[in-house]
């Protein structure tokens, strides 16, 4: 399949085109511009450089969240607009899963952490397992093909960094942890205090979102039939936006006012 992949879930913006196992093009930026300024020009440049006929695409993949609320909305709107205009299906790829794909083949535990503000991170826990294909010849594995499959130990979720470290420290296998994502520099000090097992942080070449990783997982999801109509796509935020939380807090405060206009002594968690 020929897939256009978009990732605007974090500080990095990326566009990639992959056909089968071949990455035809990728354009990534991590600079002080909004995704509304960069995403469409990046797409246009990729289209021009590889002489891409958009109608030749089989599907459009998008990092569906979690991540920046504004970034997710921009990516979602772009993917939906293209899907509707071209009559192509969409493939939603979890942001944290795609981050983990950057470390393909490692034997360590993988823990992407994205800064979710409010002292929390978007995260998940992953590892890779080897899968072998073909038949043995005279009991030998000569000529057998192997690949690695991303195994989800804990699906993406939002939590305080303390809870994440506790979970990692309690994992059964004696393996190192690799951290990556924009939450690493934010919580580096806390990780040094909290982690009881060896860990490393991924280098700049593979520690941020990549549209190419979204494209790779999208190829797998397409084979599994995980396609959706562009009209049905929606980002996966994992938690309400700041505006939504503020609205709920205002509604909660209003609901606790008695008929005399005095706030009742009610400490229910909003």
Shape: globular
- What is the gyration radius calculated from CA atoms? 21 Å
Into which percent range does the helicity of residues fall? 25-40%
- Count, helices: 7
- Would you list the SSEs in sequence order as H and E? EEEHEHEHEEEHEHEHH
Q: How are strands sequenced across the largest beta sheet?
A: 3-2-1-4-5
Number of strands: 10
N-end to C-end Cα span: 46 Å
- Fraction of residues in β-strands: 25-35%
Instruction: State the major sheet.
Output: 5 strands, mixed
Uncertain spans, ≥5 residues at pLDDT below 50? 262-270
Q: Overall pLDDT, averaged?
A: 89
Helix/strand-derived category reads alpha/beta
Structure notes:
- Helix content is 33%, strand content 29%.
- The protein has seven helices and ten strands.
- A five-stranded mixed sheet has the order 3-2-1-4-5, sandwiched between helices. It has a five-stranded mixed sheet with strand order 8-7-6-9-10.
- β2 and β3 (22-29) form a beta hairpin.
- The longest helix has 18 residues, at 69-86.
- Residues 262-270 have low confidence and may be disordered.
Task: Describe the structure in brief.
The protein has helices spanning 35-49, 69-86, 95-101, 161-169, 183-194, 211-223, 242-255; strands at 2-7, 13-19, 22-29, 59-65, 90-94, 109-117, 120-133, 145-160, 177-180, 199-201. With 270 residues, the chain is an alpha/beta fold. The strands form two sheets. It has a five-stranded mixed beta sheet, with helices on both faces. The protein has a five-stranded mixed beta sheet with strand order 8-7-6-9-10.
């Amino acid at each position: 399949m020929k897939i256009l992949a978009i990732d605007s879930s974090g500080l990095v913006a990326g566009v990639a085109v992959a056909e089968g196992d071949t990455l035809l093009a990728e354009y990534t930026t991590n600079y002080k511009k909004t995704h509304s300024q960069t995403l469409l020009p990046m797409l246009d440049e990729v289209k021009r450089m590889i002489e891409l006929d958009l109608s030749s695409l089989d599907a459009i993949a998008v990092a569906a969240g979690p991540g920046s609320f504004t970034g997710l909305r921009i990516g979602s709107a772009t993917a939906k607009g293209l899907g509707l205009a071209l009559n192509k299906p969409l493939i939603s790829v979890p942001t944290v899963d795609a981050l983990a794909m950057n470390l393909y083949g490692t034997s360590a535990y993988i823990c992407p952490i994205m800064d979710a503000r409010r002292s929390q991170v978007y995260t998940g826990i992953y590892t890779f397992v080897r899968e072998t294909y073909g038949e043995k010849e005279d009991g030998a594995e000569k000529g057998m093909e192997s690949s690695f499959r991303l195994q989800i130990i804990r699906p993406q979720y939002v939590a305080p960094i303390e809870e994440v470290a506790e979970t990692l420290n309690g994992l059964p296998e004696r393996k190192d942890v690799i951290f990556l994502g924009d939450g690493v520099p934010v919580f580096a000090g806390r990780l040094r205090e909290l982690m009881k097992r060896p860990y490393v942080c991924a280098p700049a070449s593979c520690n941020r979102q990549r549209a190419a990783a979204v494209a790779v997982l999208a190829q797998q999801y397409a084979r599994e039939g995980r396609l959706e109509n562009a009209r049905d796509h929606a980002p996966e935020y994992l938690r309400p936006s700041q505006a939504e939380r503020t609205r709920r807090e205002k509604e909660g405060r209003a609901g606790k006012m008695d008929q005399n206009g005095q706030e009742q002594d009610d400490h229910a968690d909003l």
